[in-house]
Amino acid sequence: MNDMLNIALPKGRLGEKVYAMFEKAGFECPSIRETNRKLIFENEKTGVRYFWVKPSDVAIYVERGAADIGVAGKDIIMEYEPDVYELLDLNIGKCSMAVAAPKGFKDDPSRTLKVATKFSKIARDHYASTGRDIDIIHLNGSIEIAPILGLSDVIFDIVETGTTLRENDLEVYETVFPISARLIANKASFKFKNSLCEKILGELKAQTEVNDD
Ligand code: PRP
Asked: Of 122, 154, 164, which is best to mutate to test ligand 1, by the most ligand atoms within 8 angstroms of its C-beta?
């Protein structure tokens, strides 16, 4: 049972794309395509066990060894700084970390800037590097509401298509860095299940060279 490779996939649209890459790499697990509420799927033939977890939890599973490998966004890796190996940029799940504000917002440097975010660490680091005095308001979702209700001046969040901003009369004020999905590995697993990890890494790497969405 422990010989199987445990793979944590981020639940949702990105996870579907990631699974498709693993499937193409030869690590298929047909039962995962069944529509049900199951969270764990395994294929003894290919030696893999997949499980769906909340995207922000993938790094925790991998760091603690409950998963040998997994796929997490660069945003999550930068926010939580898990002690894992970052093996590969999968070139999917591309978006940006950005500061957004109500249309026409002008920053007044003489005032503390109120920043609403799910990414408190990244936001703090960013503003520390620019020397801007800020007050972080940590939220867990629907960040876009904060400046509308006067809870914050700006938001520090992920922008993918920009639809959420547009539909809430916000706009990008500053793009901070690009984000994409990364293959990560537990450090001990990478050593003790090395040949399987390397095989997956090689196969996925070959696919990323042609992925450009
Ligand atoms: C993320 C992010 C934005 C939205 C951006 O939220 O926090 O709200 O996606 O995508 P868009 O530019 O394509 O509109 P998520 O879907 O993770 O939901 P959450 O706010 O509940 O965390």
From this structure: 164
